[in-house]
Specification:
By secondary structure, the protein is mostly helical. Helices cover about 75% and strands about 0% of the residues.
């Protein structure tokens, strides 16, 4: 029942955005405005808030780094080879690679791991989010630029507002902000999930999703993200002797549905924007079942 309380509001918010678009209350052009707010303001605030009071000793846990980076690298390579084997288009290949590893680790993962395993796991969740962000902006953006033929200087690693937020959050984690600053950050952070889900609802067209759901790339991507990635995380985490709590958090974070940030970046780089939106919706709906099974197994 608690899991329903987390997932159903997310799906409902997407549906509200879709309904508003159908009623003509918002246009497709509104999507870019919402996405820019999330990318430059809301998401950095959410990350800084999540990293508050983090025990810096967690940064010395090499096993947590090793397991997560290993499974991310493996799934990216598998997705790339799949794109080559299926002779996917140049725009589809980065969508497959990005969507295979980058899940909703921040928007859904952080609150879900806290609920499932207690608030004491939040530092591990935040660190894993930081790892995914580093991989995204050190490797993922380069892939998007290569295959899309589009370059955005604001997506350079050192200019990434997300990565800057991670670094700022780690540096400032031992300190406490004045209450008005902390409340302001919390207020901005709280806007991220509803705005980005509403934006996604504005963009999607469910009639098209019915056609896309049988597309081989979409089916393969759903399998990679919702089943293969968490399975790899459990295998390598167990193999390397990752602690019980760290292993559970790693597996659950790996099981998150394809991230909304994938949709944002696909929009920015014009790489299979519609396909990525459909993937986010389909994986979010399916994750209701897959995450339930994983939580039961853990």
């Amino acid at each position: 029942m608690h899991f329903l309380n987390i997932m159903l509001p997310l799906i409902a918010t997407i549906a509200i955005g879709y309904l508003c678009r159908r009623l003509g209350l918002f246009s497709a052009s509104s999507v870019s405005v919402f996405n820019n707010f999330v990318y430059y303001v809301g998401l950095p605030a959410l990350i800084i808030k999540s990293l508050q009071d983090m025990d810096l000793n967690i940064l010395l846990d090499w096993r947590l780094f090793t397991v997560n980076l290993t499974v991310i690298a493996l799934i990216i390579m598998v997705a790339f080879m799949s794109g080559v084997f299926m002779r996917s288009s140049q725009h589809m290949r980065p969508a497959l690679m990005l969507g295979s590893f980058l899940g909703n680790v921040a928007f859904i993962g952080i609150p879900l791991t806290a609920f499932a395993f207690g608030p004491e796991v939040l530092p591990y969740s935040a660190l894993i989010v930081a790892l995914y962000v580093v991989v995204l902006f050190a490797f993922g953006i380069a892939i998007l630029e290569k295959y899309s033929g589009t370059k955005h200087d604001e997506y350079k690693l050192y200019k990434s507002p997300v990565l800057i937020a991670v670094l700022v959050g780690i540096v400032l984690s031992p300190f406490h902000f004045p209450s008005f600053i902390e409340n302001s950050i919390s207020l901005l952070a709280a806007t991220v999930t509803p705005i980005v889900l509403f934006s996604l609802g504005l963009f999607i067209v469910f009639e098209s999703l019915k056609k896309e759901i049988l597309r081989k790339e979409l089916l393969i991507l759903l399998f990679y993200k919702l089943a293969l990635l968490p399975a790899l995380a459990f295998f390598f985490g167990s193999l390397i002797g990752l602690g019980s709590i760290q292993l559970k958090v790693t597996v659950l974070m790996a099981a998150m549905p394809t991230g909304i940030l994938d949709f944002v970046l696909a929009s920015k780089f014009h790489t299979e924007q519609k396909f990525m939106a459909d993937t986010v919706v389909a994986s979010t709906i399916l994750s209701f079942f897959t995450i339930s099974v994983i939580l039961w197994l853990l």
